[in-house]
Amino acid sequence: MSEETNVSASPAQPNAAMIPLPSAGEEEGMTKAEKSVYLASQWTLIIRRFRKHKLAVWSLGVVVLLYLMAIFCEFLAPYDLSRRFNQYIYQQPQTIRFVRDGRITWPFVYGFKAEVDRATFRRIYTVDTSKVYPIKLFVKGDPYEMWGLWPMDRHLWGVEGEDATAFLLGTDRLGRDSLSRIIHGSRISLSVGLIGLAISFVLGLTIGGASGYIGGVLDEGIQRLIEVLRSFPSLPLWMALAAAMPPRWPPLQVYFGITVVLSLIGWTGLARAVRGKLLALREEDYVMAARISGAGATHIIARHLLPGFMSYIIVSLTLSIPGMILGETSLSFLGLGLRAPVTSWGVLLAEAQNASIVALYPWLLIPGIPVVITVLAFNFMGDGLRDAADPYGR
User: Fold this and answer.
1) Is the same domain home to 197 and 333?
2) Does residue 308 or residue 290 have the better pLDDT?
């Protein structure tokens, strides 16, 4: 290999060659905006391209708000997770109103009065306009411990009074506020599975990278192992693992155990994708130059090969998180995942399995809305990150 070839195939980042560096004379005549493009780092260019994807930026904001809701769920929820209002079982949502007696006022809700239908023995709630409950900020309510550390009793909003209620999304079969349970359930639904996702992600990158770069007997062995692992059906495997867990474990610990076990066999898809990319890139000139310079396999994979398809890795990560959320929701809905007293969006949806119950109390399906919003936000954000990180994108 000639000296000229060695220079052109230096182990610098392969994408940097797409933008020719200006000479000293050209740099002096460039404007400030042009210099910011030519001299910017790779991550700076990624951030600039991501900002142009408005839908992805809004989706990132939604994801941040969802996780802030999960972090501060005790403060944001108007009532405690397990507080029951026995006199308001299956009450329909109360509407926030801004107009009273023809005048715009501070937001408030009307109270309800309950009557029993003697034919069906169902409670029927009617609006009682004589009971007006103004919605206030930073009200004193049910006591709680923020993150299990600091005892507090202030909530972001609520109503005051012994009989005052504000069930904006109605109540369930035990008289518990549905909105508070949805807010509390976000902590489990948005966090459970992240440990398993991290394990499968690291395994996929490591094993797939070794298989694609080293090849040979190691590659053959890994591919046969992947074929065996991918042959297991997911649903029966979940059922078997749920039955195999120690019965004394609490439901949340059982689910974490199943998630970790499944993550040990869930890395196969990413590993195959990484292997295919490395097979295509390992013979590039800059990789050969890195080998000649004495760089090890780990350094070449991490420094030169993985950045070459970072966009795919980012998209895979952002799409795996909603996949975990959908998996938890679906399995909890079927009774194979989390179970009461643990609260998650899937557990809340499990109460809406009976079609007759849904027909009478349709607000029990509302926990499915945050699931849809979360999945769409992660998908749109992933599209924006893919476009921003892909040097060949439009």
Assistant:
1) yes
2) 290
